[in-house]
Design brief:
Layout: H1 28-32, H2 36-47, H3 51-76, H4 81-84, H5 89-127, E1 136-140, E2 146-151, H6 161-188, E3 200-203, H7 206-215, E4 224-226, H8 232-247, H9 255-264, H10 268-285, H11 289-302, H12 318-327, H13 330-334, E5 340-342
Antiparallel strand pairs: 1-2, 3-4, 3-5
Helix pairs in contact: 3-5, 5-6, 5-8, 6-7, 6-8, 6-9, 9-10, 9-12, 10-11
């Protein structure tokens, strides 16, 4: 049997000198796909343009700084920033000099809660090698809260069912670990003997009422705290509970949506749709349409259904299931349905 490129011996026993092998042209696909060497040679071209990488770092940093300023302003103005905005610079300067410590405390507590919440998501995603962005903080300088929370971008389709469950639940659990001591300090410092005034009162969720009954038994029946009675720790804890409760609503791609998809798989779509209908009915019957209509519209536009994961067949395990079912109660304990009350003058 002859080998490729070597002719058989001639009849007289002599052999002709071996011919040079004919060069084989590279396959067509090799002309389309660069070799590893060529790919490495091309990489400096991408590194020479750092503007895209810088943008992904710069935007979260700018939003973080602006949120620091907006929460500082909210605390400095006793959570009435809109009252001081259309005013002269001298009045703004006087307010900041008089109450900068309150604003700084509120800012530090709120940012600690939000950052811990989002880093819970980020580090868990990093653990599972799921690409995720840095946290994007959302400033809201015209709101008494100073912020609308924070979000991270994540390629959730790369995570399987168990991983998306862990990523979704890690944020609220981490955030609550910071919220609880801050709220406890705030309730301990509440001066409920002071007359309630200020135009707005913030409703206490169940967790806040439990702490209030434990620290101030004589005020166990109190269900709201007025602006004149607030302190920065209580307000930051209240904001932390609100954001945690909102994120754990079992719908769409909120944290609660990740949890119910981990628990129920595709059946979570029906849970989310039913919850949206119940939420709309509650908003209408409780006459809080003005408060919750933007949230309902936003969730509806995003979509109620959670997208499929990389592997929906991965079992969750009974421990995660127990934790997941218990976590569905978080909105009940953290969420103040009416948010605030207007004082009748």
């Amino acid at each position: 049997m002859s080998s490729l490129g070597n002719p058989p011996p001639e009849p007289d026993g002599s052999t002709s000198p071996p011919e040079e092998p004919t060069p084989v042209p590279p396959p067509v696909i090799a002309l389309l796909v660069p070799s590893p060497t060529q790919a490495l040679a091309d990489r400096p071209l991408a590194i020479e343009r750092p503007s895209e990488n810088r943008r992904w770092i710069l935007l979260p940093l700018v939003l973080f700084v602006v949120t620091c300023l907006s929460t500082f302003w909210a605390g400095t103005t006793s959570w009435q920033p809109i009252v001081y905005l259309p005013t002269d610079p001298l009045r703004i300067r006087a307010v900041i000099l008089a109450h900068w410590d309150r604003g700084l405390t509120y800012m530090a507590c709120v940012l600690a809660i939000l950052l811990t919440h989002e880093m819970g998501h980020f580090l868990t995603a990093l653990l599972y090698c799921v690409p995720a962005s840095w946290p994007y903080f959302i400033p809201f300088p015209f709101s008494p809260l100073g912020t609308m929370g924070a979000v991270i971008g994540m390629e959730g389709y790369r995570a399987n069912r168990r991983q998306i469950f862990d990523i979704g639940l890690a944020g609220p659990v981490a955030g609550l670990l910071v919220v609880m001591p801050i709220l406890w300090i705030g309730i301990a410092q509440l001066n409920l003997q002071r007359d309630g005034f200020g135009g707005v009162a913030f409703q206490c969720p169940i967790l806040a009422r439990w702490m209030l009954a434990a620290l101030h038994p004589e005020y166990a029946a109190v269900d709201r705290v007025w602006l004149s009675q607030l302190n920065p720790y209580f307000m930051a804890g209240w904001v932390g509970l609100l954001i945690t409760g909102l994120n754990m609503l079992p719908i769409s791609q909120l944290d609660g949506g990740h949890v119910i998809y981990g628990l129920f798989g595709r059946r979570a779509h029906w849970v989310a749709r039913a919850f949206l209908l119940v939420a709309i009915a509650f908003v209408v019957l409780a006459d809080v349409v003005a408060v919750w209509l933007p949230m309902i519209v936003l969730v509806t536009l995003i979509g109620t259904d959670h997208p499929p994961t990389a592997d929906d067949a991965v079992p969750l395990g009974w421990i995660r299931r127990l934790i997941g079912y218990a976590s569905l109660l978080i909105p009940l304990f953290c969420f103040p349905p009416r948010l605030a009350f207007l004082q009748n003058f």
